[in-house]
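Teaching note: in complex prediction, the entire set of molecules is handled at once rather than each chain in isolation. The prompt given to students was simply: 'Predict the structure of this complex.' The entities are:
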Amino acid sequence: QLQLQESGPGLVKPSETLSLTCTVSGGSISSSSYYWGWIRQPPGKGLEWIGSIYYSGSTYYNPSLKSRVTISVDTSKNQFSLKLSSVTAADTAVYYCARFRRGGVGDAFDIWGQGTMVTVSS
Amino acid sequence: DIQMTQSPSSVSASVGDRVTITCRASQGISSWLAWYQQKPGKAPKLLIYAASSLQSGVPSRFSGSGSGTDFTLTISSLQPEDFATYYCQQANSFPLLTFGGGTKVEIK
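The expected output is the structure of the full assembly:
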C-alpha cells in the first residue's frame, strides 16, 4: 500500500532554510486524483496546513507562510519537497507530509507520513 | 480565510459514554469537512470525510453530521482506544485548507 516518508535535518539554525523531502512508495505521485501536502504541528499545539502541490507542479500555500515557503515535486523520484526560509524558533514543529485526495470519494488527507521533528536552534 | 473553531477544547469522559465534539466554520462550507483522530506521537488518521461519510476501516461508533457552518463528530460509546485529540478540517476553499484547533478526549 501507499506509504509516505519524510526525511531531512532535525536541527536547523535560526535564519537558515529548513529543507524536507517526502518520498512516496507503493504508488505513483503522478496520479490525477491526488494532491500532496505539508502540515506541521508545534509541540503541544494543533495542526497547521503549510501548502500543497499537484504532480504537474502547481503549488498552493498558506497565506501566512507564503513568503517563506517553496514546495516542489520530482516525479522521476516520486518525491516532493518543502523549503521554509528564514526560520525562527516558532518554526520548531513536527512536519508531516500527506496525500490529499480530491473529488469523487471526498476531499481529505487520507494517507500521512509518520512525521519528522525539526528544531530551530543555534 | 475560513476559520474553524472546535469546542470544547477538551472533554473528560468514561468508557461507554457518548461524546460529541463541535466544529464551527466562520462561513458556510457546505459539506466540505473532514475529521481526524490523533494519538500522542502519531500522525493524524482520517475518520470522516464529506461531513458524514465514514472512512474505510473506521469503527461505526464514529459518526459525523452537519452542513453549512455547524458540524459534529459523535462517538456513540467511547472505547479505551478512542482517547485522543480530534481535529476538523475544511476543504471548501480548496486548495486553501484549514484545521480546527483540536479537541482532546481525556479519561474521566
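Point out the following to students. The mean pLDDT of chain B is 97. Chain B touches chain A at residues 1, 32, 34, 36, 38, 42-46, 49-50, 53, 55, 87, 89, 91, 94-102 (CB under 8 Å).
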